[in-house]
Amino acid sequence: MDRLNALLAALFSQYARELGPARPDGGRVLSLSNDAGEVVLRRVLTGEQLANDDRCQEALETIARDMAVQEGRICEDVIQAFRLRAAQVLSY
């Protein structure tokens, strides 16, 4: 849990962070609030993500990226590149 708290503090230092109690499936709800106390994001971290450091870090980095896009902190060309990459079919 210390690693999770360190990741949350590093990625979301500009927000108040609350990690809800464990749900029956092992997941927990992450809430991020702005300075005015308004919840700006609420996401479930699954039990599987919480149990695996790599998956947890990946989930939190995805949330941080989504927040940056939402707040306009990522340039439009980078957003377009994400959209193009997501639309492409990978060939193996």
Account of the protein in words:
The chain is α+β, with helices and mostly antiparallel strands and 92 residues long. It is built from 4 helices and 3 strands, in the order αβββααα. The chain has one domain (2-87). A 3-stranded antiparallel β-sheet has the order 1-2-3. Strand 1 (16-19) and strand 2 form a beta hairpin. The longest helix has 18 residues, at 53-70. It is globular. It starts with a helix and ends in a 5-residue tail after the last helix. The model has no long low-confidence stretch (mean pLDDT 85).
Note the main attributes of this structure:
alpha+beta; DUF3509; 18% strand; 92 residues; DUF3509 domain-containing protein; globular
For the record, give the distance between the C-alpha atoms at the N and C termini, rounded to a whole number.
37 Å
Main sheet overview: 3 strands, antiparallel
Q: Which regions are unreliable across 5 or more consecutive residues at pLDDT < 50?
A: none
Oligomer: single chain
Continuous helix count: 4
Strand order of the largest sheet: 1-2-3
User: Radius of gyration in whole Å, from Cα?
Assistant: 15 Å
Query: What is the average per-residue confidence, as pLDDT, rounded to a whole number?
Result: 85
> How would you spell out the order of helices and strands?
HEEEHHH
Count every beta strand, where a strand is a DSSP E run of 2 or more residues. Answer: 3
Helix content: 40-55%
> How many structural domains in the coordinates?
1
CA-based shape: globular
Strand percentage lies at: 15-25%
Structural class: alpha+beta
